[in-house]
Write a structure and sequence with these properties.
Length: 312
């Protein structure tokens, strides 16, 4: 199974003609709510892509879900909605606890040019502490998926517990920030986009060739490094070799969620025992498909769509 430890947010989106300056009040559109948080998005992406055993004909409890989400939401309306949405995707949320704190919220304003400004209030996500994680929650995990929207100490502890359980530990080092070597020493696969790669290496991977060099540099810290390159796909460097996987050409209309779709597909493919190069190919297809629809969770593709593209 896959264990995701990470953030769960409600995204509140308002469209504006232009962004306000400090002290100014502007009127915007009706607001929309979207399910978000990198952790939750990646859990949903993985759940939609994981091959699941055909459910038994008889009614009764459904088969053990392939994805478990460990996180925190508030005991408020948003928290309930988000937790239920994960459940509906077949994700095990027994370790996604509602606590006395506001649910994480992202306030997103989008102007007419499509430029956005975002304020994230982590709320309950920042109350997930290392001591809240128990080894039992990682039992049977083949893949553990982590990002950086919960406290770093918790990410580190989750990586440690994932290793102990014999899982492959994936860190999507987003949003970009400095990472202690102590955390990286527990990671098997580091996945970053171009901006995060620049932050970690000091070099901007402008081309796939450049990105391979940067990934090679980063393998000093983590055995396997993947850099996603938007429409150029992704490169990977691992002890088994290296490669560039182009993305399929698509009509991209909204790239939100592409990175999360990539991670979810990568995790699902590795969980099924596929080799890294194939898992990266799955990630590239899922990422590309996510750009053809608007929104984050709403744009994440299903297994059938990805398989059709891969001609599986
Ligand atoms: P992030 O959203 O984290 O910045 P990327 O932009 O690198 O991540 O996108 C992740 C993956 O999604 C890429 O590796 C690629 O496979 C796919 N993707 C993103 N944008 C496009 C695009 N315009 N056309 C095709 N595939 C894309």
């Amino acid at each position: 199974s896959i264990v995701v430890v990470g953030s769960i947010n409600m995204d509140l989106v308002v469209r504006v003609k232009r962004h306000p300056v400090p002290g100014e009040t502007l009127l915007g559109s009706d607001y929309e709510t979207h399910y978000g948080g990198k952790g939750a998005n990646q859990a949903v992406a993985a759940a939609r892509l994981l091959a699941r055993p055909t459910p038994p004909k008889s009614a009764g409890p459904s088969p053990a879900p392939g994805v478990r989400m460990i996180g925190r939401v508030g005991q408020d309306e948003f928290g309930q909605q988000l937790r239920n949405a994960l459940k509906r995707e077949g994700i095990n949320v027994s370790a996604t606890l509602p606590i006395v704190a506001p649910t994480g919220v992202a306030f997103i304003a989008i102007d007419e040019e499509g430029q956005n400004t975002i304020i994230v209030s982590p709320g309950a996500n920042h109350r997930l502490r290392p001591e809240h994680l128990s080894p039992a929650e990682f039992e049977g995990a083949r893949v553990v998926v982590l990002q950086l929207e919960i406290p770093l100490e918790t990410v580190r502890r989750a990586a440690e517990l994932g290793r102990q359980a014999g899982a492959q530990v994936i860190l999507n080092a987003a949003p970009a920030q400095k990472l202690p070597d102590k955390l990286l020493s527990h990671i098997d696969i580091l996945v970053v986009n171009e901006i995060e790669a620049l932050g970690l290496s000091g070099v901007k991977p402008d081309s796939p060739e450049m990105a391979l060099e940067v990934a090679q540099l980063l393998t000093e810290k983590v055995p396997t490094v993947i850099i996603t390159l938007g429409e150029q796909g992704a490169v990977w460097v691992s002890p088994q070799g290296r490669g560039h996987q182009p993305a399929p050409a698509v009509q991209a209309i909204d790239t939100t969620g592409a990175g999360d779709a990539f991670i979810g597909a990568l995790a699902a493919a590795l969980c099924e025992g596929r080799p890294l190069a194939q898992a990266v190919a799955h990630g590239c297809v899922a990422g590309a498909l996510a750009t053809t629809k608007t929104g984050a969770q709403s744009s994440l593709p299903w297994r059938e769509e990805v398989c059709a593209r891969l001609e599986l």
